[in-house]
Amino acid sequence: MTTYQTGFPTNFLWGGATAANQVEGAYNVGGKGLTTADMVPFIPKEKRGLNFAIDVNSDYIEKALNEEVDDRYPKRDGVDFYHRYEEDIALFAEMGFKAFRLSINWARIFPNGDDAAPSLEGLEFYDRVFNELEKYGIEPIVTLSHYETPLALTRKYNGWYSRELIPLFVKYAETLFNRYRDQVTYWITFNEINMMGHSPYTGGGVLVDKLPNQTKEQISYQALHHQFVASALVTKLAHEINPDAKVGCMLARGQTYPVTNNPEDVLLAQHYNDLNLFHTDVHVHGEYPSFMNRYFAENNIVIQKEIGDDEILKQYPVDYVSLSYYMSKSVASNSEDYEQVSGNLTTYAVKNKYLDTSDWGWQIDPKGLRITLRDMYNRYRKPLFVVENGLGAYDKVEEDGSIHDTYRIDYLKKHIEQMKEAVKEGVDLIGYTAWGPIDLISMSTSEMSKRYGFIYVDQDDEGNGTLKRFKKDSFEWYKQVIATNGEEL
């Protein structure tokens, strides 16, 4: 009789995921330098348009540094994880976390990105965090670059548009690999590396306005190439320092569907899926897929490579593929005939009438996660890791302090059910770290009211509040999910 995996593996890594720039705060503590995230202002919802992007320009940065603008920068303060990490990790442990995905802020280690020596204070902070995780037996999943390019590198080199960042990033990674070789097994090089195409500033600290003679696409793909090479070199280095290390890439994945079975719509959906998956194609297969040759030629994109780049990509592929999944997208060749989706990152999508929509215009599609996992595993045959998935929603605190977030439980339950189905179908899945186990500053909008957590943080969009932590109903629910290895949802 043929047998198959009927549930999640016994060593499945359940947990949650955060980013330094969204939780830590303490932006000017311990010698930390400014990052690109520290310069992103809060923009009220009424001032954001459809397809809102997070870019800022060089003129704005200089004015902000000279205090010539009256804006607020929520990511500078986060939710004060820097001073409250013990309390927060204890709450994660109470939920039974097997893993915690976090990022290390490059500018906390090398304040300017190209300093001769790392900051001891910065390293000692992460020493304390890793020791606390170790105390509870929680596996750290560490992202090296999560939208946190040192601002000095943006101003000096224009971020990842310059090859100068490759050796600087390798030096930064080497510092961490040597220091934490006995505490960290799982590393991720770049968070959602495909963000570069949507926001080069967010994804790579690139100021498009400083390159007026080039298209945004040309700039983005050139910067991406430098990140691909850096990722491969860092993967090589990690394995040399610790042969047991596992290095992964990370993609913001949202399955794209044709809105009808019209072959024009099917081809368009395939095109957008390929443009998304091309990023992981390079990381896994070690080469640019052939379909990108036509795309580059037709869009007048020329990637400047150095001798040896292609060989580096080929020799050092990633060990696993990690992804974020929040929603799917639908496209139509005649998009003007359909209602657009209002989500601020769905730049080409039309509304899928079969799906519900979140408060932020993201279409909720649990079965899309199963489709995504099956497709990616069939394409790569590498272990997969869902390192972000969650629902950003408005939460109401009742008079007794309780938060009844049944909508969040429903969202996560349905996605976990579909992950389990994918595992039954043979997908090799390492783990699941829900996005924002504690409320944090939104990456895309710098809001606090867009809440993801199992843990509520008392802070509003204007930065007011006690920062006190409260358990939501989803806290006990997720605790039960982990305790039963996903059997009781």
UniProtKB/TrEMBL annotation:
Which PROSITE patterns does this chain map to? GLYCOSYL_HYDROL_F1_1, GLYCOSYL_HYDROL_F1_2
Which keywords annotate this record? Answer: Glycosidase, Hydrolase
Q: Which GO terms describe its molecular function?
A: beta-glucosidase activity
Gene Ontology BP term (one): carbohydrate catabolic process
Family annotation (SUPFAM superfamilies) = (Trans)glycosidases
Q: Name one GO cellular component term.
A: cytosol
One Pfam family it belongs to: Glyco_hydro_1
Q: Which residues act catalytically here?
A: 388
The family classification in the record reads: Belongs to the glycosyl hydrolase 1 family.
This protein is called what? Answer: Amygdalase
Give the species: Paenibacillus amylolyticus
Task: Supply the source organism's classification.
Answer: Bacteria, Bacillati, Bacillota, Bacilli, Bacillales
